[in-house]
Amino acid sequence: MGLLRSLVSLAVAASAAQAAAPRIAGFTVTWTDDFNGGRNSPPNSANWITDTGKNYPGGPANWGTGEVQTYTSSVNNLRLNGASALEIVALKDSSGAWTSGRIETQRKDFMARAGGVMRIQASLKLPSVSQPVGYWPAFWALGAAYRGNYTNWPGVGEFDIMENVNGLNKAWGVLHCDTNPGGACNEANGLGGSRTCPGSACQGNFHTYTLEVDRSAKPEAVRWFLDGTLFWQVIDTDMPAAVWNKTVHNPIFILLDLAIGGSFPNGVYGSSTPLSTTTSGGVFTVDYVAVYNK
C-alpha cells in the first residue's frame, strides 16, 4: 500500500449546513443536488432512483451485506426536510421490523477521464441516537456495470466514500475490487482507512466527505478526505494494472443509504446487530451531493 506522503487540505467548509454545493478552485461542477423542495417531498426523481425492498431483482438477498431493514419510498423513511436537506430515517415498528431509505443517482456516467481529476463530495450529518448499535449510514459509489447484472461485485468496483457503524465517532473510506474472497482488494474487507471527525462528532454535526480520483499524473490515485484532510489513499501500483483499470477507469453511480445491521456493524461490534435496545428514529441528513471534474 502506498504511504500517505502528506495531508492535503481542500478548500471546503464543513462544520455547518450550507445548502448549495461549494465551488472548488480549478474544478467544474459536473452534477449536484442541493435537495431543495417542500417539506416531506420525495427526492427529485430526475436525479435519483429510490431503491425499495431487500434486494435488487435477481440480486443477492439483504443487499448482499446481511442488513436487516426493508427500504421504502415512504416519506417516513425518505424525505426532503423543507430546509434544503434530505433526511433518511430508520424506523422500527412494534413487531421489531426495521424500515429505512436508499437512493442512487439516475446518472451512471461519473468518472475521471484520462489526464483528469474527479471529486465526489457531500456534506453529511450522521444519526445521533442513544443506542446506535447496528446503524450503518453510507455514502458510496458502484461501477455502472453493476446495474442490470447485480452479480458482478466486486469486479465492477466500489468506492465507499463514507461509512460509519454503531454510532462510533469515526468515518471509514474503503475500496472494493477484483474478486471475492481475497483478490487485489482483500475481499470481503476491501482496502480501507479511517479517522475520527475533527472538531465535533460525526453524529449530529455536518462534516464534508470527499472522494478524489486522480488520473492527472503517475501514479494514479484514489484519495479519501474528511473535512478537507486526506486520511486514506490507494495508488495504481497497489494492484495489477488490469484490476486498477477495470475499477478506476470506468463510470460509476452514487448511492446514499441508512442500513441497519449487516456484516460491517456486526464485525465491529463482535456479534449480531441491531440489538433489541437499538433506538428507532435515527436520521441521516444530507445537505448536498456534488461531482466535480477538471
UniProtKB/TrEMBL annotation:
Molecular function via GO: hydrolase activity, hydrolyzing O-glycosyl compounds
Transmembrane segments: none
Signal sequence bounds: 1-19
Domain of life, per lineage: Eukaryota
Keywords, sorted A to Z: Signal
Cited PROSITE patterns: GH16_2
Residue ranges of domain GH16 in the record: 14-294
GO biological process: carbohydrate metabolic process
Name this polypeptide is given: GH16 domain-containing protein
Lineage of the organism: Eukaryota, Fungi, Dikarya, Ascomycota, Pezizomycotina
